[in-house]
């Protein structure tokens, strides 16, 4: 399972990074925000369908969650092969940075293993922060991550374009994305566990059905994300990326704070859904202008590498 997910991650990384770069190359500056917003609609629509269909299939057999994607993946590959345009003349083929890829993979694996081990009981504590192996893994992963940036700054064709951080607009966009998705990812993860492990069972939903209903309960966020993603792209042309993405970040922060006011076991779903609607609106307003800002700040030859750094921060 872990190996298959690793391969899936490789494909997803190549697809997401290059799709943003292709959109930036194809559309003129005044239409990039709307174009990225339309892509955001597809992501949100996929999230809505995935939450519901995935939850439904999980109640039947969890393997169907993965098998369901096979025909979709085959159609997507054929469609991409037939429709994606060829790179314009003047773009040279890049060499794979095996050293950087190895260091990045090793560092992330060690860091994630340390974090997962920290969640396991150790001694008399419910958490494993007292386990020496946790700190060994985190320390080794952190050291390799620092080494990665040192090595990448000295390679002719690095996987991570460290020099892009010299561009202020790019750096601000990537760092803001890092902090925002750090908070949003943690919230979505905790909310999913809260619904499946505590809230839904306490309200009479059988444990076998909680994945489906948790997906349904989280749909409001995806709906407003799909609505506000193109709106954020349109507002980008009028007010600029900084204003629109900042507004989105403020709405997201407000939604996170409002979640803390809800009781854990007996909240009113109407208020919970309202907070999710606000969260989706903030995410939709933030993502498209922020991505356009990042891609517009770098040279055309670096547009495939720039989203890759952004995806690393989201990860």
What does this structure look like?
- By secondary structure, the protein is mainly alpha-helical.
- The chain folds into two domains: 2-95 and 163-314, no CATH class; 97-158.
- The protein has helices at 2-26, 29-60, 63-67, 69-83, 98-118, 132-152, 168-202, 210-217, 219-239, 241-259, 269-296, 305-314.
- It is globular and about 55 Å long.
- It starts with a helix and ends with a helix.
- 30% of the residues are buried.
- The mean pLDDT is 79.
Task: Summarize this structure as a short list of keywords or feature phrases.
mainly alpha; 315 residues
Largest sheet: none
Termini Cα gap = 19 Å
| Multimeric organization | single chain
Query: In percent, how much strand structure appears in the residues?
Result: under 5%
Average residue pLDDT: 79
How many beta-strand runs? 0
Q: How many discrete structural domains?
A: 2
SSE order, one letter for each helix or strand: HHHHHHHHHHHH
Helix content: over 70%
Radius of gyration: 21 Å
Cα shape: globular
State the secondary-structure class. mainly alpha
Residue stretches low in confidence (pLDDT < 50, at least 5 long) are none
């Amino acid at each position: 399972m872990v190996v298959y997910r690793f391969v899936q991650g490789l494909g997803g990384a190549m697809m997401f990074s290059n799709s943003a770069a292709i959109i930036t190359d194809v559309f003129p500056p005044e239409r990039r925000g709307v174009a990225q917003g339309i892509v955001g609609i597809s992501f949100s629509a996929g999230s809505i369908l995935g939450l519901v269909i995935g939850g439904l299939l999980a109640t039947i057999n969890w393997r169907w969650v993965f098998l369901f994607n096979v025909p979709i993946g085959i159609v997507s590959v054929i469609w991409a092969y037939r429709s994606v345009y060829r790179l314009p003349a003047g773009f040279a083929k890049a060499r794979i940075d095996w050293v950087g890829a190895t260091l990045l993979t090793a560092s992330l694996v060690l860091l994630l293993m340390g974090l997962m081990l920290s969640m396991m009981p150790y001694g008399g504590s419910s958490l494993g922060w007292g386990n020496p192996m946790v700190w060994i893994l985190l320390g080794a992963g952190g050291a390799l991550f620092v080494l990665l940036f040192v090595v990448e700054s000295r390679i002719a064709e690095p996987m991570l374009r460290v020099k892009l951080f010299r561009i202020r607009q790019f750096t601000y966009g990537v760092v803001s994305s890092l902090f925002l998705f750090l908070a949003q990812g943690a919230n979505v993860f905790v909310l999913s566990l809260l619904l499946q492990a505590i809230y839904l069972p306490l309200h009479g939903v059988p444990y076998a059905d909680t994945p489906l209903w948790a997906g349904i309960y989280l749909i409001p966020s995806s709906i407003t994300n799909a609505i506000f993603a193109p709106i954020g792209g349109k507002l980008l042309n009028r007010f600029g990326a900084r204003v629109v993405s900042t507004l989105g970040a403020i709405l997201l922060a407000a939604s996170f704070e409002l979640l803390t006011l809800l009781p854990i076991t007996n909240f009113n779903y109407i208020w919970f859904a309202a907070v999710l609607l606000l969260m989706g609106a903030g995410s939709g307003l933030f993502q498209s202008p922020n991505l356009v800002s990042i891609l517009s700040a770098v040279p055309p030859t670096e547009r495939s590498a720039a989203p890759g750094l952004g995806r690393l921060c989201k990860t």
